[in-house]
Specification:
five-stranded antiparallel sheet; 3 domains; Beta-lactamase; five-stranded mixed sheet
Amino acid sequence: MHALRLLIALWLWCAPGAIAQDSASRLPPAVARVLQQAGIPESSVGIYIQDVNAERPLIAMGEERALNPASTIKLLTTFAALDQLGPAYAWTTEVYTTGTLQDDVLTGDLVIKGYGDPRLTLENFWLMLRSLRARGLREIRGDLVLDRSYFGAAESADPASFDNEPTRPYNTAPDALLVNFKTMRLQFVPDAERRALRIIAEPALAQVQVLNNVVLDNEPCGDWVGRLKLTALGNSASARLLFGGNYSLACGEKERNYSVLGHPQYVHGLFTLLWRELGGAFSGGVRDAKTPADARLVLAHQTQTLAEIVRDINKFSNNVMARQLYLSLGAIALGAPANSEKSARAIKQWLASRRLAFPELVLENGSGLSRNERLSAKSLAQLLLAAQRSSVMPELAASLPLVAVDGTMKKRLSGAEVAGQAHIKTGTLSGVRAIAGYVLDGKGRMMVVVCIVNHARAPGAQTVQDTLLKWVYGR
């Protein structure tokens, strides 16, 4: 009898946990139904949902599976950066001169040394050159020397290697002197009177020729990009973008960015263009080299803070900015030149310092533009829980897309109760759909939500994830 009482007592003590664990492994019926309709097996899914004030998850299904997280891995890169560097951290780009400067003429080279600034845009680059002109420099009788040694040469991968789309900006390789994301914005402007399409390039680089054989028609706009036929020719030194196909008057004006040239050639072309627009004179060449020991520092230029950089990375899932940040973390922690191995080591050391163990973690470039990166839903949720308790929580949360309002979530869940009540990072690759972030539910509880799907039918998972977010908000 005593033994029986002991067994009953043990069962009563263990039962709540067992019941809770069993309950947590089951999906809400509405979510399970949509998942089944999408033809996605539960074995391809990892879900973890937890109230930030609770000790146990509300739902944990496939939570320890090592899955490809796509762009939700940016949460790891950006939280690590904010936590280690602080929201006010800013990158510096240095400008040096060699030779002699007499009056406003430099008889020597102009050296620009990059430290991996993720957002040295056309506007920021122009401001840097304008500041240089204001210091009295007008004519440069030498070359433009680019010191890109802060990042290792191996990081400049073939832009066609991921998906054979070398002109797409998301494939731009990182660079210590990344300027304007190495992109050219093309504006497509239909002229109804002339029955012709104008293509306007910005910036209009001398090394890039845009050829226009597009036929203007009156078809519905539809997939306007797909109707244009682009043939990209050339190499890192020069490029020809040949446009054919059709463009509809109904589309009005559109624009699209293209990645062109090699990094040095792009900087050379943009520098030459802007320097002349600023009233300067320069006809020299470009070369890669380290900053000479006797070079004189004339300008140290800074752009946005890390908090602003992180917002751009997460709101719009900017891959090259994330890769710049990832490499910067390795160089800052372990010394230049930066490389992917150093960055992975630096982030894992940081995780250990925060007592976060992610044994399944595989890092390649920190952006999610990878077939190899791996992370579980549970680990990603643990990261978000740790971030929620950190001093940089406001900056990280504000950097995530607000459901139905902005970023990559702008066109999702419009009109739903959860609209405007959740900050969610998205991840999209072929065969991958992921969401991760915070939901303030209808009862004022802050919930961490992670859902990762790796399956050939992953595009159908968006409806599943939207249903899950609505359920979390309204339960």
